[in-house]
Model the fold of this input.
Amino acid sequence: MPRVDFYVLPPAARADQFACVMAQKARQQGHSVYLQATSSEQVARMDDLLWTFRDISFLPHQRADGQISADIPVTIGWEPDHAGQQDVLINLSDTIPRQAENFSRIVEIVSGDESEREIARQRYRDYRQRGCELHNHTIGSENDYAA
Done:
């Protein structure tokens, strides 16, 4: 079963920005990443953001809407069946993707909004019921993860 890390963000933090930081960290550690979006529109936003989330960085990535190359470290998709052989899942959706058990690590990002936190609590219970190794991280401010 995968290790699942829940990152609880402060109220003003942006989950999409944090997802980019986590994808970059995973890439620096030699992992391949699948960013699970909620829609094709979110895929497009994440595609743009991965080009611009830091002034001096670019994270090589691809959309999961065509031929997927194993040489590109980050793949963004919104349909669960698009995940390939990546080892880290960054889940931006409100549900646990069908193929979650295929990853060695899952990153769940929880925003400061109370309704989103309640949805995340349910995912936490579901992961626990599946027997996943669970970890919680409270992010105090954007400075805790910004370079």
Notes: DSSP finds three helices and seven strands in the chain.
